[in-house]
Amino acid sequence: MAFRPLSARAPAVLLRDAKPLKAIFGHAQRLGRLQRLLETQLQPAAREHCRVASWREGNLLLIVTDGHWATRLRYQQKRLQRQLMAFEEFAGLTRIQFKVQPPTTQPGVVEHIHDLSPNAAETIQATAEGISNPGLRAALERLAAHAKRKP
Fold this sequence. Notes:
The chain is built from 6 helices and 3 strands. The protein has 2 domains: about 90 residues, 2-Layer Sandwich (GMP Synthetase, Chain A, domain 3), CATH 3.30.300; about 35 residues, no CATH class. Helix 1 crosses helix 2 and helix 5 packs antiparallel against helix 6. With about 150 residues, the chain is an alpha+beta fold.
């Protein structure tokens, strides 16, 4: 008996037919809409630090990147709540909660690549030739080889 894989279906068909996916997609769209409304009421500097996590039974949970922004937003909580209640989507808003959750990845962090000049590689290779310890000599030769790989 041979395994026959299921035929692939288009993403639009999956979202239309599969109820769990449809519910998840609908929830994601709703959160996106709430996020856009929230951003219209936040200061421009605070927008990148605050995300809508959930909205249910009049309780809005916001995820904030650090304690500094959470404190600043808590001071503005009453004003923010009044402004959000003006929108139909937030009509039943009774409470705003803030949860601090640092981002899992650092945006803009670039790996530092140190280039080794050919002159430095020659010096390291010459040093390696004068070393009697085989482990240290191999390590220095590997280090010198980094410059040789570059075009």
